What we know:
Elements: H1 5-25, H2 29-47, H3 55-97, H4 115-119, H5 133-160, E1 163-165, H6 169-202, E2 222-224, H7 225-251, H8 258-261, H9 263-277
Parallel strand pairs: 1-2
Amino acid sequence: MCLTPCEARTVEHKIRHERRHDSLVQPPKEMSRLRLETRVDHKRRTHTKDTPAPIRQKNDRSEKNAQADRFKNAMTKIKKKLKNTRAFFNDERRVLNESKEYRDGMPTWLPTINFVDIHFHNYRNPRRTGASLSERKFIYLMPKLYKSLVEFQDIFKHLAKVEVNFADDPFYMYNKTRQELLEKTLHRLYSTIAEINENMIAVNVTVPHINQNKNINTLDLKVDAPQCLKNDYIAFRAYGNLLNNWYSEFRCPWGKKVIHDNIRCRAYEKKLLEKMQARPHKKNGAS
Length: 287
């Protein structure tokens, strides 16, 4: 069968139309590959935007936090030991206080410590040495705590050697309780001082050398009963106040919210503020 020229053009036009439609529905292989590569490159560029932080910076921060934690842990151990020492002494001293009425006094052999300066000490670090606040507090407080406890340890050792002349029967009962209190107090002092010493060495803080208090020699080793009672009362009361002040110092740091929330902390800081304001002013106006 033969086609007329008009019909042949119609068939040819139909074939071209179908080819053009197929090319629009299914893109060439080259175009598909190009689009695929474009998508892969785009994903890679997005992935490389999140660059990790420098490893060195993380390590420096971790080392600093670890150093601060060492001082915090050492401080916590000492605070716990001091709390127990204070609690036991207060309980045991009540037994002795029930035995006799005492007189007041402030002799030269009694060690003193300035809690006003300790409480209001400025821990800011103007030199920017990199030391944490925990480290600066530990370095400032621990040598002072260590020194004050060693000084009272020497006093109690001396009082344990005292002999009383012309003691009556009631005093023998008091002396028995007295010796028990001295033994327990010295035992716990040894333990607390050793705890402080151990933790200072653990964080590379120098343990101070404490010279013996020469004024202890003014305490006679042979006294009458009233003088023994007076010396005991002065020493035990001063030691009890020392433990209470150190305990308050650790629980009520200056500038912290706990001072306003705790009645004892408010009373402790009020007492120190009154002492600071009662100090004589220097010529330049500074207190």
